[in-house]
F-box/WD repeat-containing protein mec-15 (Frankliniella fusca), 475 residues
Amino acid sequence: MDVDVNCLPGKLICKIFSELPPLMLVDVIPLVCKRWYGLSKRQESWRNCDIVISDTASKKELDQLVRLASGAPYLNYVDFTKVNDLGPEVKAIVSALLKVPKTVRSLCAFGSSTVAMRELTRKMLKAWASTLREVTIPLPRPATISKDYRVSMCTILTRISEIRKLQKLCFILHGVPDFDYTGQLSKGFSSLKKFSVLSEDYGCLSSIKCNRFIFDILENNKKQLVEVNITEVCHPIDKFKVALASCHNLVSCKVPLEILSVVKNMSQLQSLEVYFMPLDELKIAKSWRELRHFIGTSSVIEEITELFLTEPPLHRNPCKIRPYYIDVCLAVLARKIKRVKNFRLLNVKWMSDLNLKLFFSNLINANSICVIDSLDASPFSKCHIEMLSASKYLKLLKIVNLKVPSVCVAEEIQESIQNLKSQQPLLQTDFNIIVVDQSASLKTINNTAPSLNYYNCYHDEEDFIIYGLLMRIFS
C-alpha cells in the first residue's frame, strides 16, 4: 500500500528532516515541493545542524561547510577551537555565516589568538548576540602581549556581556595574561546558569594568575548558577574558594579533590565530579586532615546522586607521585556514596584494593556504573564484580579498556559479569578487557551485547529505558 508522506503532520516531517545530512536540507529538500520548502526553513528541521572546522579538514569538506554556512538558517553549534591557521577557506566560511542573518545557539571561538581571529570573534558575537545561548571562549597566550591585545580581548568580553539570554559561559585558559578587564562582563547576567573555567593542560597550578573577572562572574551570579565546572584553579586559591563556595544553589559541580570543601553549603547539589590534581603540596600537606574530616562529616556529599572521579593523563601531570592524602580521602568518600545512582571512574589508573572494595560495596543504589580507561595498575578482580550483587537497581555496567595481567583473570572477570547479569536480567553490560601478558600475545575480550557508549548523552531514566527498547528492536 502506497502512503503519501505529505499525510504526516508537519512536526513529524521536520523531525525526519533533522536526521538527514544538513546539506540535503540546503540542496535537495527545498526543491521537492512548496510544502517541503516551507518545512525546511523551520528551526525544528535544523536542530542537529553543526559546523565544526579544523585545520585538518580537506578542501572538499571546507567547500561543503561554505555551502552549509550560506544556506542554513539555523545552526545549533559553531566550533572554531581547532582552527590555528586562518586560511582563505576559513575566512570564506565566516563570511558566509555573517552574510545572511542566522540563528546560532552555541559558539566556540578560535583556539589561537591573532588580530584577525579576535576581530572575527568580535563580529560573530555581535551578529548573533540576540540568539546565542552558549559561548566558549579560549583565552590563549599570544606570541606578543601588546596594548592591542588587551583592547581586543576587553572588547570581546564586553560583547559577551551584551548577550542578554546567555545561559552557559565557558573559558578555556592557556596561561592567559592578566589584562585587567573591569567592564560589564563582571557585573552579572540575568539568565546565566552554567559557568566553566577549563584548561587543556592539567597540572600543578600554583604559578597561574587569573584575571579577576573570573572571581566577579562567580560572585555576581552566585544566586542563579546551577552548574560550575572547574579544571583550572585560579590564584589566589583562597579568594577563588570563597567565590566558588558562595554559589549555594549549584546542582552540579566539578572541582579538584583538594578544594572539595567549597561544596559545604551547596544544599541542592546532586552531581559531583572530583578530579585529582596536586595544587600546592606544602599547603595541602597541612590541611588534608581537615579535608578528610569535612568529607566524613558533610551532609551535602552524603546526599549526592551522581559521583564522577577523574584523573588527568599522567603526561600532563608534572606531579608523578600520587600524594598519600588522596587515598586517605577516597577511603572516607567511599563510605558516603550509598545514595549515588550514577558512578563513573574516568582515567583513574591506580586505586588501592581497599578503596576499590569500599566503593563497589557501597554502591547499593546505583543504576549505572562506568569504569572507563581506568584501573590499569589496580588489583581489579572478580571479587569486585561480585560485590555489585548488592546493587539491586543496577541497569548498566560499563567497563572499557580494563587492563589485566593474564587471560585467567580476564576470564574470571568475564564469568563474574555474566553471573551478575543472570542475577539481574535487566542489566545491560558493555565491557572491553585487554590482557597484557609478557609471556603471551595481546588479547582482547569483549562482550556481545549492543554497545552503550552513548549512554552519557541521555539525561534521565526514561531516555535510557527508551534507548534500551530501541536496541532490542534493532538487534
Confidence is low (pLDDT under 50) at residues 203-208, 315-321, 448-475.
